[in-house]
Design goal:
The chain is mainly beta. The chain is built from two helices and 13 strands; from the N terminus they run E-E-E-E-E-E-H-E-H-E-E-E-E-E-E.
Length: 180
């Protein structure tokens, strides 16, 4: 796999400045917020604006000098970000890691990033579309499936989700295609 083929996953977003020395608060997207501290390195996405060609996404290593738990959250400091104004310029920027930095999931568990793009089919082999994204709703996760129309399908293993075949690129569901 080349660097161009590497899959990057959004794991956090930079929030408000923390103090006056360039530190920032982080909003972690990981299930356990502190898991963010287990990944090294972090990356920023930048657009490569080569003249005459469409912008390409490029990921550069984020120059984090220190990151730590603070209260119920996480704060971080990036090289060259030495005052509150510099920290404000980072606000809203996303932090990424490479997919290969994640540990292998346990049997029957899947990372959301691995489910996006899979075709969703009923038990009767009717295609419902492709997983566009996953959403956390509190009660259970939901697949946003885009086909001839958009469907929100609960990601409930064994009850709705009958089989996930990453190699085959499909998810089998017990779902009525006519269900609104």
């Amino acid at each position: 796999m080349s660097a161009r083929d590497t899959v990057y996953i959004t794991v956090a977003r930079i929030g408000a400045p923390y103090g006056v020395r360039g530190w920032v608060k982080l909003h972690s997207y990981t299930e356990q917020a502190l898991n963010l501290l287990d990944y090294d390195p972090w990356y920023f996405r930048v657009e490569d604006g080569t003249a005459g060609s469409p912008p390409a996404e490029v990921y550069l290593e984020a120059p984090v000098t220190e990151a730590r738990e603070h209260g119920k959250g996480i704060v971080a400091h990036f090289r060259g970000c030495d005052d509150r104004d510099a920290a404000m310029r980072l606000r809203g920027r996303e932090i990424f890691i490479r997919r290969d930095q994640l540990p292998e999931p346990d049997e029957g568990e899947y990372y959301w990033v691995d489910l996006v793009g899979l075709e969703v089919k009923t038990l009767q082999d009717v295609s419902l579309g492709v997983v566009q994204e996953m959403m956390a709703t509190g009660a259970n996760d939901v697949m946003v499936v885009k086909g001839e129309r958009q469907r929100l399908i609960p990601y409930v293993m064994d009850h709705v989700i009958k089989q996930v075949d990453l190699d085959g690129g499909t998810i089998r569901v017990d779902w009525d295609p006519d269900y609104e």
